[in-house]
Amino acid sequence: MARALRLILVGFGTVGQTLARQLLARRDEISRRVGRVLVVGVADSRSSASNREGVDLAKVIRSKKRTGRVGELGTPEALELIREVDADVLVELASAGGTDGEPGLSRIGRALNSGMHVVSSNKMPLAVAYAFLMGRARGRDLALKYGACVGGGIPFFEFADACTAADSIRRIDGVLNATSTYVLTRMEQKGISMDEALAEAQGLGYAETDPSMDIGGVDAACKIVILGNHILGKSFSLKDVKGMDGIAEVTAARVGATKTRKKKIRMVATVDTTPRVSLAELPQTDPLAVDGPVQAAKFQCVSSGAKFIGGEGAGGLSTSLAVLRDVLAIGDLERR
Amino acid sequence: MARALRLILVGFGTVGQTLARQLLARRDEISRRVGRVLVVGVADSRSSASNREGVDLAKVIRSKKRTGRVGELGTPEALELIREVDADVLVELASAGGTDGEPGLSRIGRALNSGMHVVSSNKMPLAVAYAFLMGRARGRDLALKYGACVGGGIPFFEFADACTAADSIRRIDGVLNATSTYVLTRMEQKGISMDEALAEAQGLGYAETDPSMDIGGVDAACKIVILGNHILGKSFSLKDVKGMDGIAEVTAARVGATKTRKKKIRMVATVDTTPRVSLAELPQTDPLAVDGPVQAAKFQCVSSGAKFIGGEGAGGLSTSLAVLRDVLAIGDLERR
């Protein structure tokens, strides 16, 4: 029997648990496609579980639900787990953390140093140290994949890679933060204030308890940096982003006045020679004038014109499917 | 030196000539990426040219311009060329022809039988005999690629393949005929009749001299059959398309009345359990309510919601870049 693809999962919130459920429920299908996929280690911020024959994921999910931890107190922390457990892929699923990229950055760096491929839904390490991490991955002929960092499950990178196969892209504009778009949409539809719209978004699970990264523009800034680096071949970092204009100051009155002019305010992230995030008033028919928890982007191709892409991009299932897509792509590579 | 990838081009209208110019102008770049690509045969409907060391493309382009033919009178016709010339890839670029798929169908069949990969921008053979042709290609482990048949350069298939890597698509709706969309857009904007709008589209090169395939719905029907077969795993043929409603009967009065209701008439092709083409009145904010020579599609994913894709999809350059993308993908395969 062929060797299994052994994963370490770090981060076991909504995305991690949903991924674990997918891996359990679709074991046979996945096995047929890329061979056996085995989770040999799981860590959250307080504990870990590991087993070289495969962690019992159903048990880990139950433990997380009951105790808030994936393992016993005193078990190795994530960075230790990556050093100690023999695995093929680190799946980094923690949420962003600070703007220094830690603690995800150290984990990804260590995994690459240990010869592991990496799949990350944690965008901050990529946004602050893309060139460094990609250089390390390429130097060791390892895959570093981050499809889940942008587009909430919409295959932005696969689409862009196809666009650039015989053409080039010179500019990207995106409405990349679904929470902000949802909030602005509700303000437009109901005439309510930002606080009211945010409370509604939190109630529906579209916004974090602390939504400052979303409405403040940092989340969109991270995404446009990663898009610019991957698609335009740049080496931007989060600190290169100009004018990180969030939507925090947008009032109900301004939304109403814009609507009267048949336009919509949206937080638009752009990258060409520089990455930037700004508030724009878009005509209602603009492909970026999307409503609800939706993301969209426009790619300006040099020879073949503008192309756009979008969709419902929010929630744990979409993100975990994007992670699974990247894991399966690595499975394909390893089987070749 | 590694062996060159040898192409036969059949069809030398706008797309063929533009592809030839790309192959000439970007020879070094292409060579670096996939190795040397050599055109060893070119045929149009009346003549051909071949050379096992590589046809002089600049000369063929000049000949076509001067005489309307790629080669001398009495040179082998396309089907003969495919039998006689040793090549790796047939690039089938002829326009649709009759609804029996001929003469492209025989050429693609013969190329596959001779062990050639096939890249086609000719959609009719795929629309009438997809299952047959794909079965033949798979049986011989050959690539049969048709990215240029749908979306006019927008990478529909690459996008869909990424969407289905970890999810499935259950329904596709598309506004797939850029000519019809352009005509309807101009009727909306100017209040003009279909004949006037068509004349304008012909003047700009967006419509063929005989636009019946476009406005009659056959072009969109072919595309939705190919999308359904590739993405949903079906085995539809053009004759399975229900209700092939073109736009020919749409009057200026109807367009005006629809506009008053803040909607747009569009020719929408749909595939789920059946393929069909119908006229729909779309809200102006619908992702499919695009304007101008644009194509767009919506993919309904089973687990991760609706995703959309679109762009400026018309014209020889976009189509020839889509063909080049498929040729380069085969070049990659061959180098592995």
Structure in words:
- The structure is a homodimer of 336-residue chains.
- With 336 residues, chain A is an alpha/beta fold.
- Chain A has helices at residues 14-25, 27-34, 57-67, 78-84, 104-113, 123-139, 156-163, 178-190, 194-203, 212-215, 218-232, 252-260, 316-335, and strands at residues 5-10, 37-43, 48-50, 89-92, 117-120, 144-145, 169-175, 242-244, 263-271, 275-283, 294-301, 305-312.
- Chain A has 13 helices and twelve strands.
- The model of chain A has no long low-confidence stretch (mean pLDDT 94).
- In chain A, the strands form two sheets. The first copy, chain A, has a six-stranded mixed sheet with strand order 3-2-1-4-5-6, sandwiched between helices.
- Chain A folds into two domains: 5-152 and 317-335, NAD(P)-binding Rossmann-like Domain (Rossmann fold, 3-Layer(aba) Sandwich), CATH 3.40.50.720; 156-312, 2-Layer Sandwich (Dihydrodipicolinate Reductase, domain 2).
- In chain A, helix 4 packs parallel to helix 5 and helix 5 runs parallel beside helix 6 (123-139).
- The radius of gyration of chain A is 20 Å and the shape is globular.
- In chain A, strand 9 and strand 10 form a beta hairpin.
- The first copy, chain A, starts with a strand and ends with a helix.
- The interface between A and B is large, with 36 and 36 residues.
